[in-house]
Design a protein that fits this description.
The chain contains four helices and two strands. It is mainly α. It has one domain: DnaJ domain (Helix Hairpins, Orthogonal Bundle), CATH 1.10.287.110. Strand 1 and strand 2 form a beta hairpin. The longest helix has 18 residues. The termini are far apart.
């Protein structure tokens, strides 16, 4: 993981929980076209080592089923952190 995205990582059980909204600099209630636009803007300027994280974020947030599961896990993570 790069230093640029280290602030987006939170502890989530035995593995690291990645805040994909922060990776793409988006609010949680954003629609798909904004996700796609943010992904392409960041991917165009990203270094090679950052592309894996951007691709992972886009894969999860761009798929409605995966995004629903991710949002549920994110809410659980926020509740446990409080």
């Amino acid at each position: 993981m790069t230093q640029a995205y280290s602030r987006t990582t939170r502890r989530y059980g035995p593995k690291m929980f990645q805040d994909y909204y922060a990776v793409l600099d988006l609010p949680p209630n954003v629609a798909f076209p904004a996700i796609e636009s943010a992904y392409w803007k960041k991917a165009f300027r990203a270094a090679a080592h950052e592309l894996d994280l951007l691709n992972e974020a886009y894969e999860v947030l761009g798929n409605p089923d995966k995004r629903e599961d991710y949002d549920a896990a994110r809410q659980l993570n926020c509740a446990q952190a409080s």
